[in-house]
Specification:
alpha/beta, 7-stranded mixed β-sheet, two-stranded antiparallel ribbon, 11 strands, 31% helix, globular, disordered N terminus
């Protein structure tokens, strides 16, 4: 039999089908990242307690800056070339909690010193709030989030805000000044100074609670404007940790000058007790109340109120590197024996020509604490099924370079 013509016909048909298949299966253009599309992102908004302020330092030493210098001089650099800051003094450190990994990418839009609304501080530094400020290329954090979320798949927005609305920095300054300028036999406490107490009246707390609620509503508006349904992402609202022990927990006496000159923690015992028993609960109450008042249905909370207990500044369970016989933050056990809160510094102890310290790093969670919080945020992320919880120390040592923490 002659199969030449059928074979030729088959080959012709196959050639035609192959040609047609090549045309009909041309790949569609890849979808651009945006709401629901692409790698999940974690975005952090708010103030110094989430931007990563003091994240360069792993503990404190009065004899060697190198002992505690975990990240070096580029710790706060966040521009595209790693040569400086996008916004001066926002101090978005490389140890900040935005970078949890676990299949996500991180974007840090927080700024040290920020309040609920945008302002410029007395030194001329721009401080973006959780609003839609837009002038001369400068944007509020809500507007910055809106632009970022439109082209990235934002699944978690973590927020720390409200502390500066209570004038945190000026309160610390007043307390330290009162300690330095009054003797043991005639103590001048800060908690009853009008400039401090006025922040904690019922009306003042209510106003700050309302401002926090508005700021969180701005975050929701930003995400809606970027194309997200409310159930397509989660807002994780975190409160503030205790940075100082109560009176019984200090390792330095309140008499003499050692508490400040050596420990960098110049508070009278009564003021430290007030800070833990009154000021912090009122601030954290306003944060939680603001979250409740905001009306957002996709909120989870991260309770950091006691996350660093046992590792706080001047606490009697930890010490300076030289007090513990350590010479470097990389030594085994350093994370458990040194402080997780940065020393309070004055002009004389921070700002010489050769000093790498900033006053604004004072009384902020340092490298150890930033990495600890990162662990808790990762646990809250929970593989995308975000949950609330209370962050506490779970043990000693490091796991993957982070302190052992649990989210209960």
């Amino acid at each position: 039999m002659n199969f030449s013509r059928p074979r030729a016909l088959v080959l012709s048909v196959l050639a035609l089908l192959t040609s047609g298949l090549a045309v009909t299966t041309t790949a569609a253009p890849a979808l651009a990242d945006g709401p629901g599309q692409g790698t999940p992102w974690v975005v952090t908004l708010g103030d110094s307690y989430i931007s990563g302020e003091a994240g360069r330092w792993a503990g404190s030493s009065n004899t060697s800056t190198a002992s505690a210098d975990a990240l070096g001089g580029t710790a706060y650099f966040d521009n595209a070339t790693n040569t400086g800051e996008q916004i001066n003094r926002c101090h978005r450190s490389k140890s900040a909690q935005a970078h949890i990994g676990a299949g996500t990418l991180g974007m840090n839009l927080a700024c040290s010193g920020s309040r609920t609304t945008t302002f410029t501080d007395s030194n001329g530094n721009f401080k973006p709030g959780l609003d839609f400020y837009n002038s001369n290329g400068r944007q509020g954090q809500a507007l910055a989030l809106q632009g970022f979320a439109a082209t990235h798949n934002v699944k978690l927005v973590s927020v720390s805000i409200g502390g500066n609305d209570f004038n945190f920095a000026s309160i610390v300054q007043t307390c330290v000044t009162n300690w330095l300028t009054s003797p043991t036999w005639a103590k001048n406490y800060c908690n009853d100074d009008s400039s401090v107490a006025s922040n904690f009246t019922a009306s003042a707390v209510a106003a700050k609670r309302a401002a926090i609620a508005t700021a969180l509503q701005n975050v929701r508006t930003a995400m809606r404007n970027a194309g997200y349904a409310d159930n397509a992402w989660t807002l994780l609202v975190q409160n503030y940790p205790s940075p100082l022990p109560s009176s019984s927990g200090f390792r330095y006496s309140e008499s003499g000058y050692t508490r400040m000159s050596k420990g960098g923690c110049g508070f009278w015992n009564r003021d430290a007790d007030w800070a833990n028993a009154t000021a912090l609960p009122k601030i954290n109450g306003a944060v939680l109340g603001g979250a409740n008042d905001s009306g957002l249905t996709n909120v989870r909370t991260l309770d950091l109120s006691s996350a660093f207990n046992g590792r706080r500044l001047c606490e009697n369970t930890v010490g300076l590197y030289e007090e513990k016989g350590l010479s470097s933050w990389t030594q085994a056990g350093a994370v458990d024996q040194t402080e997780w809160i940065n020393q309070i510094r004055t002009v004389s102890t921070c700002c010489g020509s050769a000093s790498p310290y900033y006053i604004q790093e004072s009384l902020h969670p340092n490298y150890w604490a930033q990495m600890a919080t990162r662990s808790c945020v990762r646990q809250a992320w929970n593989g995308g099924t975000v949950r609330s919880g209370k962050c506490t120390i779970a043990g000693t040592g490091l796991v993957g370079g982070e302190p052992r923490m649990t989210l209960g």
